Amino acid sequence: MAHYPWKHAEELKQTAQSMVANYKGILAADESNRTATKRLEEVGIESTEESRRKYRQLLFTAPDIDKYISGVILFEETIRQKDDGGTPFPELLKGRGIIPGIKVDTGAKPLAGSPDEKVTEGLDGLRERLAEYYEMGARFSKWRAVITVGDGMPTRQCMEANAHALARYSALCQENGLVPIVEPEVLINGSHDIDTCEAVTEENLRMVFNELYRHNVMPEGTVLKTSMVISGLDAPSRAGVEEVAERTVQTLERVVPPALGGVVFLSGGQGDVEATQHLDAMNKKYKNRVPWRLTFSYARALQNPALGSWGSDMANTEQAQRAFAFRAKLNSLASEGEYSE
Ligand code: 13P
């Protein structure tokens, strides 16, 4: 690895391996305040700094989740919050053997010149922010690019602008000792078929890995977070579980370097059970063929049942924790191809 300039090379490699350890995956709990508010209001809970803190505390203190969860992606507000006893969340997680991570992009904004598409912002001042997050205990971070499929979309300029930003973000992360989660999400929204999703995903990932290579990003210290190759939500007929598994794995094999630290998936609007089934099908059939761990980094597919059972008065904490731990356990099994319904 001598030609990579990163003084933290060995640490980055170790962190990436821990993030995708056997039977484990990542909890995405990095919803922006806007998204968190939407999710809380959907179940009748007012979104305040305190209700968001209580909700994240519920997740991070759920019994047994340390068996299934390797790391948690936090939001800027959350990484600075504490539990009821005054322990900062990053410390609480570390105490359970869970690695704290942090979302560092500042959101997807309309792309000038193609305003129906988005480009993710957040590079200004990022070096300094990363150094601070490292001090606070974060050892990985996340940046999400959004690729829309539709009439004439995605455009080349959208994919290139996002790939370039992902590469600059990743290089800054590795310079500062944090493993970048590189997330170029191809949105599930639309009526496109699975062939279209496959073509877009392959081309987009190819651009992303070309840019990462140009920017000296070390694959062993990088984790890809990708959408699956899947039919659009409104497609007239949607591909089944086996086909999604096969096409997703084949696409990854075509473009992802074998040296990469690992591959994790977002749930991206799939149903909770569907997201588990897809992950399981990939691992049941292809676990021994692919060079990387394939595991989860879900937000909605892990949290939905918990949010639904917490109750509008935030009273059913234990029930919500059980619901969360249950989905975490099933996805842990799916990450080894050992899930059965
Ligand atoms: P979902 O699993 O809800 O898609 O969220 C994952 C994520 O982190 C999106 O950036």
Strands, helices and their partners?
Layout: H1 9-19, E1 25-28, H2 33-42, H3 49-60, E2 69-74, H4 76-79, H5 89-95, E3 99-103, E4 108-111, E5 114-120, H6 126-135, E6 140-147, H7 156-175, E7 179-186, H8 194-214, E8 223-226, H9 241-255, E9 262-265, H10 272-286, E10 294-298, H11 300-310, H12 317-334
Parallel strand pairs: 1-2, 1-10, 2-3, 3-6, 6-7, 7-8, 8-9, 9-10
Antiparallel strand pairs: 4-5
Helix pairs in contact: 7-8, 8-9, 9-10, 10-11, 10-12, 11-12
1,3-dihydroxyacetonephosphate (13P) binds next to helix 11.
Low-confidence parts lasting 5 or more residues at pLDDT below 50? none
How far from one another are the termini? 43 Å
C-alpha geometry: globular
Roughly what is the average pLDDT, rounded to an integer?
97
Helix and strand pattern: HEHHEHHEEEHEHEHEHEHEHH
Q: What summary fits the major beta sheet?
A: 8 strands, parallel, barrel
The structural class is alpha/beta
As a whole number of angstroms, the C-alpha radius of gyration is 19 Å
Strand residues, percent = 15-25%
Strand order of the largest sheet: 1-2-3-6-7-8-9-10
Identify every distinct bound molecule in the structure, by name, code or SMILES.
1,3-dihydroxyacetonephosphate
Number of contiguous helices: 12
